[in-house]
Amino acid sequence: MGLIHAELILKNPVSGAQMPVRALVDSGALLLCLPHHIALQLQLPELEKREVTLADGSHQLVPYVGPVEIRFANRRCFSGALLLGDTPLLGAVPMEDLDVLIHPARQELIVNPESPHIALAPVKRIHPASEIPCSTPMAPPLGTS
Question: What's 35's domain CATH number?
Fold first, then answer.
């Protein structure tokens, strides 16, 4: 599979500044990464520094900015962003929040076809009683022995 890009709208929800970007879509990355010049144009304030592990295993301290609104098709989410690299990168966490998927045959980002009109946000998996692991006994409540 080759590189997949998507047309996104990024917006600073505080100042209202927004811009279209062509982002690399990488489900192997976790977060949204932006070049410094995009953060400057969107007037995104630095919230803190974060240590990141790069693909080569090295560590780097980078600015974390936000909030940033990410829009794709009929979806939007809010995220922070790491200032890193020279092209916008959309990682797995905002992809999950947007409820979008990589279509491998078409090599493009698509809205989840199982929820085409509104983003589906699973927050908890409900296990049938037969699937709940019970390998260790429960401890007695505090204060009882």
Answer: 2.40.70.10
Give the H/E segment covering residue 2.
Answer: none
- Beta-carbon-side half-sphere exposure of residue 87 (alpha carbons within 13 Å): 13
Consecutive H or E run containing 39: helix 36-42
Q: Strands 18-25 and 89-90: what pairing?
A: parallel
Quote the tokens at residue 132.
Answer: 């709940």
From 16-20, 33-37, 102-106, the region with the lowest mean pLDDT: 102-106
Both tokens assigned to 105: 């045959």
Residue 109 belongs to domain spanning: 4-120
Take residue 48 and report the two structure tokens written for it: 């803190």
In a domain, 50, yes or no: yes
Which 8-state DSSP code applies to residue 129? G
Report the Cα 94 to chain-centroid distance in Å: 2
- Counting the structural domains of the chain, the total is 1
Nearest to 86 by CA among 22, 29, 27, 26: 22
pLDDT given for residue 92 in this prediction:
96
Question: What is d(CA 140, CA 16) in angstroms, rounded to the nearest whole number?
Answer: 53
Place of tokens 């295993």: 57
Helix (H, G, I), strand (E, B) or coil at 42: helix
